[in-house]
Amino acid sequence: MSDTHDTSIARRNIWMRGLFMLLMGFAFQVCGTVICIVTIMQFVMLLASGKPNARLVSFGRSMGRYMLQIVNFLTIASEEIPYPFTEWPKAE
């Protein structure tokens, strides 16, 4: 009886992970769009001032780390669900 109960819990956990994977896949697509916008903005800033915007550089680095966290979660290399379930990654 406990074996059936354990199997039921495991299946429920798999379905919950699937739901989180769908949400994180959507978040990854949104991040890709944001990165494209940041890239264009950074290029325009570079043309205008001759140097990159430090805030956009920092944001781009943290966004890249966030996207890496998402990829690790989606490929089941990590069990940790990325932001908003954990802290936003630092740019360092």
The number of distinct structural domains comes to 1
The 3D shape can be described as: elongated
Largest sheet: none
Kindly, what is the distance between the CA atoms of the first and last residues, rounded to a whole number of angstroms? 51 Å
**What structural class do the secondary elements suggest?**
mainly alpha
- Written as H for each helix and E for each strand, in order along the chain, the element string is HH
Percentage beta strand? under 5%
Number of strands: 0
Cα gyration radius (Å): 18 Å
Chain oligomer state: single chain
Question: What fraction, in percent, of the residue positions are helical?
Answer: over 70%
Mean pLDDT: 89
* Annotation field: number of helices: 2
Uncertain parts: none
